[in-house]
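Tutorial handout. Part one gives the primary structure; part two gives the three-dimensional structure as tokens.
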Amino acid sequence: MRELSLKDLFDGNFYHVSTEGLEQVTLLKDEEDYRIAWNYLALVAWRTGVDVVAFVLMSNHIHTLLACRDIIKAQKAIKLFKQLLSTYLRNKYGVSHILHNSSDSISLIDSIKYLRNCIAYIFRNPISARICVKPEEYKWSSYHSCLKPVPTSENARKISDLKYRERRQVMHTSRDMSKCPLCVDDRGYVTLDSFVRNDIVSNAFLNSGKVLMYHLGSCNDAKTEYELIYKPMMQATDNDMYDAVSKLVAMRFRNKAISDLTTAEKCSILKSLFFNHKTTVHQISRIIGLPRELVRKMLSQ
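Part two.
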């Protein structure tokens, strides 16, 4: 029997996205805060076209597994989420730029084993934080629908069917949602079945609760946390990147120096640099001498 592959689950890529926790800062303080963060995640998925596979909302950070075409989409999604949540927190608590001081970790999931460990790690987060002893005891995660979809409330309604003022109250945004297909339940939460890809999780664990429970019990939190969060954040130094760029340029352009490249030649190596090295748009711009906006535009194509 052929072994399950990532392409069997989704025709694209999987990324674990985490906003770094802010020490001694609680972002989400009450039920409303968690509800708004939950709904913003659903809103972001709809607006950016990414699929949410699994997530957990903690008081000072979020973990989510996204399925999308490339890392640029994942970056756009988390950027929009932070913008929305930052505006909400500023309006409610009077705190400015609180999320601007947090960094993000985005790691590519490249195997079924890695995917299962990632999902288990996400669902185990409240357990590791000693908030609960079982994942089903924590309210703000997609665990509740991962193998057995939560029945949709009889009173659930499409956001597009709500009046403008109701949409504002539920979603805390003035953005146009008149064509939004998401549904909200009678508590004001976007329903899990309208924005979480439970089918991917179910298929990843072979539609078996036993397989899921095995991974939840055997997941090494410390090792997985390092692989998913800290390792991807270890950015190469400018010296290391300069050496890497110089070697790539010499190989592709017959020993030319970086300064001798045309703009078109520089643009032709952007994706190779970005996806094969732990770097950023700002660092690439700095090393090869292109405007940041041009680098960002070329990487998004």
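Part three, for discussion. The mean pLDDT is 86. The first strand starts at residue 13 and ends at 19.
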